[in-house]
Amino acid sequence: MYTSKELLEIVNHYLDSLAYDRKPASLYEPIKYVLDLGGKRIRPILMLLSYNLYKDNPKDILSSACALETYHNYTLLHDDLMDEAPLRRGQQTVHKKWNDNQAVLSGDSMLVLAYERLAKCDAKHLEAVLHLFTETALQIGEGQQYDMEFEMRNDVTVEEYIEMIRLKTSVLLACATKMGAILADASKEDAENLYKFGEQIGLAFQLQDDYLDVYGDAKVFGKKIGGDITSNKKTYMLITAFNQANAEQRAELEKWINKNDFDTEEKIAAVTRLYNEIGVDKLAKEKMDFYYEQGKKFLDAVKLPNERKEALATYAAEMMKRQR
């Protein structure tokens, strides 16, 4: 059995070894740049760990696992462009380092490369793998559309938000765990339980991202703290604050949200103080813990000895302790 740290080294080595020798080089330079920025490589690691539950050599599906990492980074590249984000993992985003058009075109090419890398899986599983991946990609687009539409609304509910992050974020983690199971010839029941495991862990993971945007350490987090606050992004934190606030607190929140001319640091400090008063930090942690515990139940239901599942369970626990 491989540990997540061993798999991280394997994934990074594989990604580093990929050649981008097609022309024009200017199309592929941003792709290599994005993948060289590093990251946690959560999706390929989840896929390899899930495969390793049943098969002893996860390197056999390394190309397909790294296809998910390629696709994930494609979505980040386009997300950064839509959000006008200046930094990703502490470095300039592609549209800042190059330009908007380059971000679109190189991102589109990353999507095609993801399919190319995915298709190197065992032919007997290709149809199931492509169906799962394509459905997941469509769901992620749907989630991103909801996310954009929510920015124009002031009545987004927690339930709507959870469904949006399920589509935008957690289904790719679920895809990773299920795809690993499919490629390892797992039973349909196990594959579905692993999908649900990934989905629930993914919800907890995104809620943690919302939390860290307010309470994280900028040097560790890799993004500017309070970015969601300054952009009035409809996160679990903001939606819950509105739901739980008294009249005075709600008025204060609305003042900052409707203010066009403001000092960034002052706004972040004021809204964070309101979150603390309302208890949003505690509620967010409770919600994270809920989905994490739900995920563990689905992993428990996978019909394998606990020692086979230990590496995957440990990795999920480590994900919940992250600071970035």
UniProtKB/TrEMBL annotation:
InterPro entries on file: Isoprenoid_synthase_dom_sf, Polyprenyl_synt, Polyprenyl_synt_CS
Cofactor: Mg(2+)
Keywords annotated in UniProt: Magnesium, Metal-binding, Transferase
Pfam families in the cross-refs: polyprenyl_synt (PF00348)
Biological-process GO terms, alphabetical: isoprenoid biosynthetic process
Listed GO MF terms: metal ion binding; prenyltransferase activity
Annotated PROSITE patterns: POLYPRENYL_SYNTHASE_1, POLYPRENYL_SYNTHASE_2
Superkingdom, natural source: Bacteria
Family the UniProt entry places it in: Belongs to the FPP/GGPP synthase family.
The name this protein goes by in its record: Isoprenyl synthetase
Organism: Prevotella intermedia
Taxonomic path: Bacteria, Pseudomonadati, Bacteroidota, Bacteroidia, Bacteroidales
